[in-house]
């Protein structure tokens, strides 16, 4: 052992990994218990497994069992389809008759990401599935998952989780300047990709469009599915009205599924996920009547039902989920009274409770939660002449103290009717409407709360078109992409210094 190299000698190869030395470095990491080096080798192989399996298959079949297992477990293994991953595992097991590893390795194939015809083919004709009760059970589990379409968000597991390189910002629907409602679903994807059609702003790529164009709708994420609910649609006559329809987007297959419609038509409302349910709060109906009603959606039953209503009709309010509660702020009543109230819904008690009100009334604003603080941003109020005024200052609410604070930072420009999303302690206020110009906006403002005491508001990249009534969220990026989120997370003037 006196002549054995010290483990620190092997720090430098982390940048030197290649197809020539990765196996040797993996053996070194295993021998000297170097987790950082082992992780780097796994990451390298995750990125290059497709190349290895297609052009150097003999080498792929010689991979050590533990290394192959860690690669199969990675969410970032996107270079192969799940059917290709299954075929590689089978070939590896058959090579040198390594069937003692069958039970473990086949657990890491994500059968829920395969389509139904592929699963039926495995069940009916593959010898491994027919000879292994575990394999047969896993395929049957995936078929059952696909057959229970509406309950899929509640049945997420390691075998249905999408493989992806990163989360990214999605935008759905909205209202363009020429009043048309938008069907498009786009995601932030600044790196050029050959697999998707890029149109409009080069930072945004299109995916399968919604069944119906809509604006002033709501989105919510459950089980890595995006639910799109309600909103305003435009009929062939040019007339617009609120709708009750809803649909669900699955990023695993870039496909939409229509789900049960709400009991009431709603636009300018709030939607949130609490436990296994979606909750829709208030809004305006197809007759432009302001609603007090609240209803919840059960994916398992694909059904909506009314729950405890608000104590008054409310629309154009904002809301978010925090601490397993649904919070709602501001809005306007059916008597055109602007509100500064903060209300919270407890699903266990099916009860609404009042909390300390905001300093200022707001409508058409947004609200988001970061580290047990609620933030309200944008919107407008009325002055003493009943004229609308922009609200640029930001207020934060401490859930533990039931106390509001006016923040020292403000939005750079006023935004109304915007979308909002949160990721990595940053709040994204997307698109909207300017009451100064009476025009929709193409800007994204980012409130960076990631460093306490160094909070900052800056402009992110622009949207592909100006739009108000847009909805947004973060979801896994399509498996064939790796969006660089730097321009979403850092002001443009500081990108070069990061």
From TrEMBL:
It comes from the Eukaryota. Gene3D superfamilies: 1.25.40.420, Kelch-type beta propeller (2.120.10.80). The keyword Repeat applies. SUPFAM superfamilies: Kelch motif. The keyword Transcription regulation does not apply. Pfam families: BACK, Beta-prop_ATRN-LZTR1. SMART domains: BACK, Kelch. Residues 22-123 form the BACK domain. Keywords: Kelch repeat, Repeat. This is Kelch-like protein 32.
